[in-house]
What we know:
500 residues, Nucleotidyltransferase, domain 5, Hypothetical protein af1432, 5-stranded mixed sheet, GppA/Ppx_hydrolase, ATPase_NBD, Ppx_GppA_N, Exopolyphosphatase
Amino acid sequence: MPFSSAPREFAAIDLGSNSFHLIIARVVNGSIQILSRIKQQVRLAEGLGEDRILSDEAMKRGIDCLALFASRLQGFEVENVKVIGTYTLRRALNNDEFLHQAKAVFPYPINIISGREEATLIYSGASHTQPEKGRKFIIDIGGGSTEMCIGDDFSPIRAESRHMGCVSFAKRFFSQGHLSEHAFESAYKVAMEKIEDLEGDYCELGWQHVLGSSGTIKTVVSVLRANGYKDGIITLERLNYLIENCLKFNSLYQIQLKGLLKERADVFVPGLAILKALFHTFQIDTMRYSDGAVREGVMYSLDAQFQQQDIRQRTATSLAQQFNIDVEQATRVERTAYQLVKQIPFWHTHSLKQEFYDILKWASQLHEVGITINHNRYNYHSGYILNNINLPGFDNEQQLLLATIVRYHLQDIKLNYIHRTYRYSKRNIITLLRLFRLATLLNRSRQATIRPQQVKLRIDGNTWFLSFEDDYLTNNPLLVNDLNLEVRELQAVGFDLKFA
Length: 500
């Protein structure tokens, strides 16, 4: 599908129970680029009484925030601003009064959505920004409610919302910040009761991946990483570790854990109680954090052109257009890389085989993005861009690997700057890098050189052997010169390359 060349700027606003969020973005070459984000903590749920009346103080905090957002949105047409209200606003019996006051300072319509609609938007936001494919279970613990949705790729199958959130549970079970094992168990048991009716249907549907969005899950991941769990994966064992450390304190406000922000301290333990209940009820093994949630879901619901099956390819295509990539050259490099990667013997049965192939494909398509800055040492610029730009569909490790390969595909290799990650061993990273260096080297003369019909690759430890058809190297002396330079670059870091 051809993309419109005229950028379209728009805003998505989520009026949540804990915080109000504003995202301003634009669509360029079929991809969404985030221009700015504003987050204001308003704690609407704190002002929602048992009679479901929203207090004047909570309303004022919300209206003041909307006035701030309105000043940022000056010049935006109404059709380009989408605003949704979630749990607290849909529960408040006097939400019409809030909407009436909002009109005085905020000129855009506010749509208060149902819990299931919120869950499907969260699903959409995570699905359009994270790399997982197939069936996914996505969970969002908000200030007043928790949303759950199972779906395939971009299509939700079962969406639910339950009245339990980190702010409402803090108010109900941890009054005045009082913390005890009894209070925690009470919150945990109530959370279990609220979702027990979903266990059978959800577990029968099953899933391949579990993702969690929201401030609670983001905070859990941040605390885990700060305390030595660098992969950021949430497990029940790790949740229990956090809970045990929190219960050493007598007040939510006294909790001191590495990575725990002061403004999240009083809602952290209530969120842990809900999250533990979700892990137990649905027998979740592992969960990964998704930074895409309801706001991103609103953005990606604006146009059908985003309903593609490969988010990362959409991202790569958009960047290629944005940076005026030479598509024919990218295709030449990609074909050579694919020809070589099939000859890596220890990857034939590797569990990440397809991911390695894909990384080489995207590196081929994007390795020249830095030329728009300066052709001289453009690989440095390309690596910097890919390491720092927003890449929807790529997780942190994939983005770092892509940037590393592109950064070092030319000139010297700095092994001290290349480190293994939790998913990729250093051996595999180096293998990808060496292979991609060869793929770009063999196409350095671009269309001026006749590509070899066949390049054979044999690997013996750190020594790679390249062989070409008869007379090919004789007829391409510039390539021989480039290969000799590559031999010297590799020898400088302890690797060998031989060719004939």
